[in-house]
Amino acid sequence: MVAARTERALADFTLAQRAFAVAAWPMRAAEELRSALVFRAIRTAARQIGDAPCRRWDRVFSRLVGDELRHARLCAETGVLLGAPRPQYDVGVLRARLQTLTDTRSRLLSLLLIEVAIGETLSTAFFSAGKQLAREPHTRRVLATILRDEVRHARLGWRAVAELGQGATAMLATEARKGLLGLERDLAIPALRRLEAGEPFDPALAELGVLPPEVRVETFYKTIETSIVPRLDALGLDGTLAWRDRWK
After folding, report:
1. Could you give the CA distance from residue 70 to residue 93 in angstroms, rounded to a whole number?
2. ∠49-98-125 over CA atoms, to 5°?
3. Helix, strand, or coil (residue 227)
4. Each residue's pLDDT tens digit, 162-203
5. Quick one: DSSP state of residue 203?
6. Rounded to whole angstroms, how far apart are CA atoms 120 and 150?
7. DSSP state, residue 228
8. Is the pLDDT confidence value at 147 over 70?
9. Within 13 Å, how many C-alpha atoms sit on residue 93's CB side?
């Protein structure tokens, strides 16, 4: 039934448009699995530290692992429903990231700040923008489902950093600066380069949940400047300075 309705909804799009949009779902699945593994690494670090604040967060981190695994399955299944192959998962990037964080508490706090608080805030903004532009019903439903969880994850991330990061302001401020630079390189600059090169973007793809590069760029910088920097400032991490000096 779902497959039949989806096929009817896709009938107005060309095969090329459908193929391009469908290819995004395995990539989303891989991103959501990476998030699940990040939360698992956070939970492991919290258990290794084992103090009372970390124990209070253990059950929350476990639920978040489950959320992200569900997202990964949902994206993989949506891709298959629309004709995409099963996603290929590569944990090499995450493994390299974890290898830079040899101290357990630093690993816990850095992942919470960059991948969860900041990363999930950006993810919320991207999913929200995608949902607003999407017109294909199944795509909208899946994006809306993930979006609801991402909003909650971002909120929990900021709360966890505030509670567990007490006494680690200098380290977190340094991580914020490095993290903002890395996120800009990964999430904004590729889209900026496409815009600078004048690469065409088919508007119909937005109706299938693919963010136009100009929307991705605008969403990234607006979210950083109006949401993330003020939250960093409120935590005493001087987000204004971290953002200004990220390339230094």
Report:
1. 21
2. 100
3. helix
4. 999 999 999 999 999 999 999 999 999 999 999 999 999 999
5. T
6. 6
7. I
8. yes
9. 11
Angle at 185 between CA 182 and CA 189, to 5 degrees: 160
Using CA atoms, how far apart are residues 76 and 90, in angstroms rounded to an integer?
15
Q: Which domains does the chain have, with CATH numbers?
A: 2-244 (1.20.1260.10)
Q: What pLDDT shows up at residue 4?
A: 58
Burial pattern 26-52, b for ≥16 Cβ within 10 A else e, equals: bebbbebbbbbbbbbbbbebbeeeeee
Reading the block at residue 246, the tokens are 């990220």
Contact 219, 190 (CB under 8 A): no
Residue 155 DSSP one-character state: H
Q: How many CA atoms lie within 13 A of 49 on its CB side?
A: 22
* List of residues 6+ apart from 22 with CB closer than 8 A: 79, 82, 83, 84
Q: What is d(CA 167, CA 164) in angstroms, rounded to the nearest whole number? A: 9
Rounded (5°) CA angle 82-134-220? 110
Q: Give the separation between CA 213 and CA 5, rounded to whole angstroms.
A: 29
Q: Which residue has the tokens 């605008």?
A: 218
Structure tokens at 137: 């019903």
pLDDT over threshold 90, residue 10 = no
Alpha-carbon span 110 to 99, nearest angstrom: 12
The single-letter code of the amino acid at 226 is: T
H-state helical runs in the chain: 2-10, 15-22, 24-49, 52-82, 92-99, 104-110, 119-133, 137-164, 169-183, 189-196, 204-207, 213-223, 229-234, 239-244
